Amino acid sequence: xxxLNLAPTKEDKFAFGVWCLQNRGRDPFGDATRSExxxxxCVKGLAQRNCYGYEFHDNDxxxxxxxAKQRDEIVRDLKKVMSDTGxxxxxxxxxxxxxxxxxxxxxTSTDPAVRLxxxxxxxxxxxxxxxxxxxxxxxxxxxxxxxxxxxxxxISASGWLRDSLNFLCEYVLSQGYNMKFSMEPKPNExxxxxxxxxxxxxxxxxxxxxxxxxxxINPETAHIKMAGLNPYHEFAQALDAGKLFDxxxxxxxxxxxxxxxxxxxxxxxxxxxxxxxxxxxxxAGTIGFDAHPYRTECDPWDFVxxxxxxxxxxVEKVRCYNECKEIQDILKEVHGASTQLKGFTARFSKxxxxxxxxxxxDPNALAARKLPYERLDxxxxxxxxxxx
Length: 388
Prior knowledge:
Blueprint: E1 14-17, H1 18-22, H2 39-48, E2 53-57, H3 58-61, H4 68-85, E3 88-93, H5 112-132, E4 136-140, E5 145-146, H6 154-175, E6 180-184, E7 193-194, H7 199-206, E8 215-217, H8 221-226, H9 231-240, E9 248-249, H10 268-280, E10 287-289, H11 301-323, H12 325-334, H13 350-358, H14 363-367, H15 373-384
Parallel strand pairs: 1-2, 1-10, 2-3, 3-4, 4-6, 6-8, 9-10
Antiparallel strand pairs: 5-7
């Protein structure tokens, strides 16, 4: 392993959120432990580490309430860094959760004026994202939820969110922007319950929109594990639906507050299978990391280097897995039963239906088939521990 070249390249398509680097180590029980880094310095630092791209909220780079002159100056400086280094803005999103105006939601606020303000804020950020070249625009509904169920009807709230997204889809089309939307599910925090908590709920919601072809999913490892679900399966569901527009990789201990740990720091096997999924199914988007440096760190750069290195190690482990003869032999054995029946239900006809009804099966014989999953799982463990 030490002889491997684990240095990141632009072809890896790694990207980090500016907000991750600007995290100052605050938490609900303690103040900041490090100084904030400017957006320009964040992007410069990522470029120096050969990152492909960066992601941003509007207020990560443009302070809330900034004048048009301030905005233009910041954009000019960022564009110069991008021009000088080749780093790209890969994803944009809007901060609709920090300011007190969003205390009871942005698109799902009970006040129509707040909903319109949120939609207006997103329109400005869409313009900014398009100007910076971002092809994906993410919606994370950090305040779209409730603590008090009596406060709003979830069907009405879904309708308000749907109206805003339909409006914004039409806005992108009217401007001729080459941009798609991606929704990021999360089950809770900072609200007691958030709307659209899982990949499945977002998939169902997308199909109620006027332009479902424009809208996909940006699943995040930590958010999935907060719901007690399996990131490998949730990412796979989005991929299978053709809706995996972007990813946020990180780490998380199940059923806890949103920890945003570094990718692979909590569950190596889980990180491996997520990486394998993206490779096996030729995911072509950016490999986005949304994690925060530990509060004990004086600067954020070790977490950046660590995230990229871990992912590249996992890519190498996928190769080892694919080249392990014993693993592949077990998989051939597991998937080699009753091959003459494969694909039988892929297409229905009355004849096929009748044929299936007339088939004879021996359940006891089928149950007797050996499935050496204990050995298979041990081999995966040995690959990850460097024994294979």
